[in-house]
Every structure is written in C-alpha cells, then in structure tokens.
C-alpha cells in the first residue's frame, strides 16, 4: 500500500463530481495520500500551490483530479497547461489524464513533446484540446511559430520543478508563462526543494499555499526502500560485481544507472550476451523505441534496463524492485530520483550504490542529506555463488519432474539408447545432462 495516514478520509470528502469519483474508486484508490489530502482542497478553492513530497507519493493525482473537476468543457480553448521536463513523464501524465477523464468523452487531452512528428501534434491542436501536457522546448517552438495560443490558460502546473530547473528550462518556462494573459492558478510540484526553487516561487506564483511534506522529518524517502552501498575498487571488478548481484538478487525488474549514453549501450549488450533480457535507455533513442522499451519493461518482456538519468525522473513503473547506481549520481537530487524508481505505490524496493573508497565522502554526504543510514552490502563471494547455483539448479530439476508426462516415453527411449550405445554409467549420463543445462544458462 502507498503511504496513507488518512484512514478517516476517503475521496468523497472532496465533493468531486459523481462520475469522477466513480472513476477514482474504479481505479482502486481508496483513500487520498497525504499530499492529495492537503493539496486538493486548496486547488479546488483556486489557490496557487507549492507541493513538495517524496517520490511515489501521488503528486500527479493531486493536480489531475481537481483540474478535471473544475474544468469547463464548453470552453473551447486551451485551458490547462502542464509543463514536464521529459517525454516519458509527458506520456505518463497524459495517460493518467485520459484515464481519469474517461467519464466524459468531450474532454480532450493533447501531449506535445520533442521527438514526435510536428504534423500529428498540429493536427491534435486543430482538434481544440482543453488540456495540454508539454515539454518546454517543443511548446516554445509552437509559440514562436504562432501555432498555439495559450493566452487563456486557467490552470498551470509545473511538475518535477527541480528537474526543470536543472535541465535549464527556467528561461523557457518564464517565456511560456509570459504568453498566458488570463488570471490563472499555478501549481508547482517537486520531490526535493533546492534553493533554486525557493527563489522562483515568488516569480511564478501568487501567495501559494505551501504543502511541504516530510522534508524536515527523519526520512525524505519512502520507508519501503532498502538502501545499500557496495565498495568496488576497479572498473573491471565493478562489472564482475554487477553480474554477481544480477545473478543472486531476487528482483522483478532492475534499472542500472550509468553516466553516459554510450555506456548504456555497451553495458546492456554485455548483459544481454550473458543471457538476460536487457535494454539500453537513453535520450538519444527515438521516441518510438523508448516507448516500446518502457512497454516491454512494464510487461516483463525486458527485466533489466541500463539507463542514464533520463529515466530517473517521474517514471512510474511498478515492478522495478531493484535500482543499481553503477555510476555515481551527479548530486543528491539525482540520487533521490534514481532510487525513487523503486518502492512505487508502497511496494518494497532495494537499491545498491557502487562506490570506490575514494568516493566514500559522497556516501556520507547522501546520508547526511537523507537523514538515514545506507547499509553496506558485500559482494556475493565464490562460496555463496556456488551454493546458490547448486540450490537453484537442483530445485529446477526437482520441480520439473511430473510422473505421468507423456513426453517421458520419448526421454526414456533416449536414455536406453545412450546406455546401449555407450559405456557411460547413470551418474556420468546425469553429469553430461547437467553440463548441457548449465551451458544453456538455465540458471538465469
Ligand atoms: P509522484 O508524482 O509523487 O512521484 P505518482 O503520482 O506518480 O507519484 O504516484 C505514484 C503511484 O501511486 C502511482 O502508481 C499512482 O497510481 C499511485 N497512487 C496515487 N495516489 C494513490 C491513492 N490515493 N491510492 C492508491 N494509489 C495511489
Ligand atoms: Mg511525479
């Protein structure tokens, strides 16, 4: 379960439209999360909002729900603008909007981002959408070409604001806002609050209601993420250690973060060659491919993603149970966002940070910042690995014997033929068979 401390409240406390409420319950949301409980009433009343809460705490619905409730469907201009830093986040938020808006087919949502063909988006604009989800670059492009008119926007949301700032979008955001002429409500959401955000609050917002959760308390990360670090001393060693963890850790899916696009490709090839289903993920890949990879990851066709920080923001993929920081994150915010890809919606997650002794200072720095300890995990040693393999292979074989399987007649014939035509005894035949299984990487 996602962290909800509001057992006394359910979604009917917001007095949403009945149809919207039905959809919320249908999705399986029972109680609002803390950030939703605190933001939604202010949002509904028309206040500007600054919402700071941990990753995975439900910030998206904190703005989608009140916006859908208050939107005027008979007003055929762009009336809602959501700014997001990355394409993936754009698609995710657009999908959520579309899902919650299902109760009324007239509500139109359009997403605009770089990498998608202009003509599709321009066609979408002609269709007079009520809601636009956009990355700043592409939106500015349209504004400069006079293809879009956002002057009548009533609700503006800046999501993952810390990342917007980091990616240098702040000037773009400012120019975008200068195109809005009507009185509008602004909400800014972020998982962290660097100084730079405090500085822009006054510029973008009008006496916002500040809902800042957990930043001053003990732990700014979800409690259900177990964090570890592992000391590695050389580059070559690091790769071996990674493979050992991939072999013995129990996981549904893994994201391995590295620092360069080139290395996402190199490392994912290496891992694939070892028999895992693995893919690279970086900002140079075209949009279609990135979407397909995320789709495959969600549907467990891929179990390992080797990614740059482009995957660290906002992505909500529930089955990621392990995050490995193969290369160091560049700063504390990057660390928090990377590990926030696991432990989503209350599920448990594990993270391992690879660290050289030289970089131990960085560990202390993170610990100070997140106000909790990161435990040391040791590399699985050879003895452990051997026992692990023995167990795994023997269980695999034991669990694979069904007494009356019809195919077994055929196998029995093969066995008799081996016994007749060779001098191998039973044990030797078994060993030869195990060797075949082992080579086929049935261990993975
Ligand atoms: P954030 O933006 O804070 O990182 P998200 O908005 O992406 O988090 O939400 C994280 C996950 O929690 C999503 O899978 C979402 O569907 C789920 N979620 C959000 N609100 C609720 C709720 N009230 N009850 C149950 N699950 C929720
Ligand atoms: Mg978010």
What key attributes describe this structure?
binds adenosine-5'-diphosphate; seven-stranded parallel sheet; elongated; 14 strands; binds magnesium ion; 17 helices
Characterise the protein shown here:
- With 444 residues, the chain is an alpha/beta fold.
- Helices cover 44% and strands 15% of the residues.
- It has 17 helices and 14 strands.
- The strands form 2 sheets. A 7-stranded parallel sheet has the order 3-4-2-5-6-1-7, sandwiched between helices.
- Strand 12, helix 13 (332-339) and strand 13 form a beta-alpha-beta unit.
- It is elongated and about 90 Å long.
- It starts with 17 loop residues before the first helix and ends in a 5-residue tail after the last helix.
- The protein binds adenosine-5'-diphosphate and magnesium ion.
């Amino acid at each position: 379960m996602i962290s909800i401390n509001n057992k006394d409240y359910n979604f009917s406390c917001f007095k949403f439209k009945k149809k919207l409420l039905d959809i919320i319950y249908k999705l399986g949301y029972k109680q609002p999360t803390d950030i939703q409980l605190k933001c939604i009433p202010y949002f509904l009343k028309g206040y500007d909002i600054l919402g700071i809460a941990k990753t995975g705490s439900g910030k998206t619905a904190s703005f989608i729900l009140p916006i859908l409730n208050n939107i005027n469907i008979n007003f055929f201009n762009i009336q809602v603008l959501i700014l997001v830093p990355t394409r993936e986040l754009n698609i995710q938020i657009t999908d959520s909007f579309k899902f919650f808006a299902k109760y009324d087919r007239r509500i139109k949502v359009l997403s605009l981002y770089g990498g998608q063909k202009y003509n599709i988006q321009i066609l979408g604009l002609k269709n007079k959408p009520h809601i636009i989800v956009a990355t700043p670059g592409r939106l500015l492009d349209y504004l400069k070409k006079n293809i879009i008119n956002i002057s009548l926007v009533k609700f503006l949301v800046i999501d993952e604001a810390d990342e917007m700032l980091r990616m240098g979008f702040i000037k773009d955001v400012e120019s975008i806002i200068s195109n809005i002429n009507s009185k509008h409500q602004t909400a800014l959401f972020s998982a962290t609050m660097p100084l730079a955000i405090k500085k822009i609050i006054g510029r973008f917002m009008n006496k916002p209601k500040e809902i800042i959760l957990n930043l001053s308390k003990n732990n700014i990360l979800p409690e259900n993420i177990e964090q570890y670090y592992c000391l590695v001393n050389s580059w070559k060693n690091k790769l071996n250690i990674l493979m050992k963890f991939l072999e013995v850790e129990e996981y549904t899916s893994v994201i391995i973060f590295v620092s360069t696009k080139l290395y996402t490709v190199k490392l994912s090839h290496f891992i694939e060659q070892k028999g895992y289903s693995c893919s690279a993920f970086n900002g140079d890949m075209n949009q279609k491919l990135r979407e397909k990879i995320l789709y495959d990851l969600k549907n467990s066709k891929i179990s390992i993603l080797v990614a740059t920080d482009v995957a660290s923001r906002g992505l909500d993929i529930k089955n990621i149970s392990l995050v490995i920081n193969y290369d160091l994150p560049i700063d504390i915010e990057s660390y928090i966002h990377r590990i926030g890809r696991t432990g989503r919606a209350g599920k448990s997650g594990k993270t391992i940070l690879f660290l050289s002794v030289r970089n131990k200072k960085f560990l202390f720095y993170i610990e100070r910042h997140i106000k909790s300890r990161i435990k040391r995990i040791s590399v699985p040693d050879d003895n452990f690995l051997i026992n692990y393999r023995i167990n795994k292979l023997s269980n695999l074989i034991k669990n694979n014997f069904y007494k009356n399987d019809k195919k077994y007649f055929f196998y029995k014939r093969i066995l008799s033929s081996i016994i007749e035509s060779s001098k191998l005894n039973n044990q030797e035949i078994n060993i030869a068979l195990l060797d075949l299984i082992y080579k086929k990487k049935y261990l993975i």
